[in-house]
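All the exercises in this workshop are built on plain-text protein records. A learned vocabulary of local backbone shapes supplies the integers on the structure line. Once this layout is familiar, the rest of the handout is easier to follow. An example says more than a description, so a record of this kind follows:
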Amino acid sequence: MVFQSYALYPTMSVAENITFGMRVRGIDPEIREKKLAEVARLLKIEALLDRRPKQLSGGQRQRVAMGRALVREPKLFLFDEPLSNLDAKLRVEMRAEIRRLHQRLSTTIVYVTHDQIEAMTLATKIAVMKAGEIHQIGTPKEVYERPANMFVADFIGSPSMNLFPARATRVDGHTRLEVSRPGEAPLVLKDPRQFDLPSQVVVGLRPEDIAEANLRSGPFVQTGTCRIDFIEQSGSDTYVLTKLGGLDVFGRFHPETHVEEGMEMDFAFDLAKVLFFHPETEILLN
């Protein structure tokens, strides 16, 4: 097990921390030294073996905690939010280290985290839990593209999936969706497909499926003019907050697109990516 708080012995050196469990179990000193050398080389901490934990950075301490688990050569690792005490840059670096470690060892790692970015980038399979109940198990792609319910849809993704109530009807061979808050003029979306839906649904669209109109085309793309209320620049993307029928939703624009708060633009809605959820049970319908 690799703990969130490292749990290193402060009076012991790095080498002593890593080999302590083996020493307690009476493992032969030569075997201890051999395993220590292998793990130190794997984690790139050979130069730190004589230091105490207080002389290490957070990332180095986490490597030592991982080394202590690695020398056990277990069939299963449990990582309990191991990166939550690190700063953002170091978390990215350690994610890459853990990923490489997993590829080298080919050992199962159960990785507990509240950070959905960590889950998406590290996992081969994700179990999304809430209040002790598993809501969905799947690959990162499956969980992102086909969330089982509204909790998963809202939790996975940054920004999370846009979820807004709509009235669904069948009209002339397509599904008509009226999106609005009470008292607001509705936005009407016309999906060329027909779905067997209840009259009231919750529509889900990822921010990347609501973009500037000139970048999207096709039979499932509908355009509409919306006002930009707020802009978030993330470098690689520009997220814009607008309103659909009086409801706040996020869209994702190309970073070089000229946008200003208060301006009106033509938005494209990729209805091929639309998901429908039941408003009461919150489960995925399509």
Notes: The first strand starts at residue 76 and ends at 80. The CA atoms of residues 185 and 245 lie 6 Å apart.
